[in-house]
Amino acid sequence: EDKNIDVPEGRITKDNYFAIGDYRIKRGKGSVRWPAPEKTMPVRTYKVMKLLWLKSVLLGEHPLSIGPTGSVKTTMAMDFLINDLGLDPETQRAHYNTDAFDFLQRLEIKDMRTRWDDQDFVKGMRKGNPTFVDELDKPKNPAHFGAVNQATGSGWLVLPNGEVLIARPGWFLVAACNYP
What we know:
disordered N terminus, 11 strands, 5 helices, four-stranded parallel sheet, three-stranded antiparallel sheet, single chain, alpha/beta
């Protein structure tokens, strides 16, 4: 099922291709089409990856980039979200001690009262902004994957405060992780 997502004009061509520069991919199942360069350059891989991400987002999927440390996964994802799509993503970085609460809400004391404070993952779902999670593979406790899988699979979460949060239209997750 296609979802309505606003993308800058010129990214979907009249003949139903997704396009970034000279690189095109046919909507639906098909192969990537690009002009035959004289020699292979890293730029080609970069553009093709962004094009495949665009296709995933337009089809309602959540792109995941897996690669070695230092392979510009984060830079490429932020460039895709901010410069190519013109969006304002929420960003969250996982680390060794990240748990499910780090993705959802934290109990904080403010003005002599305790309250649940939304984390960036939840803020993105509330606003309908995409969320970028870096280092998704780092946490030692895999409990955070339950929250990520629930949100990306069904579009809703039950938060620690008992609230059922349904993602607003336009929310999707882009994540980056290293090889296992």
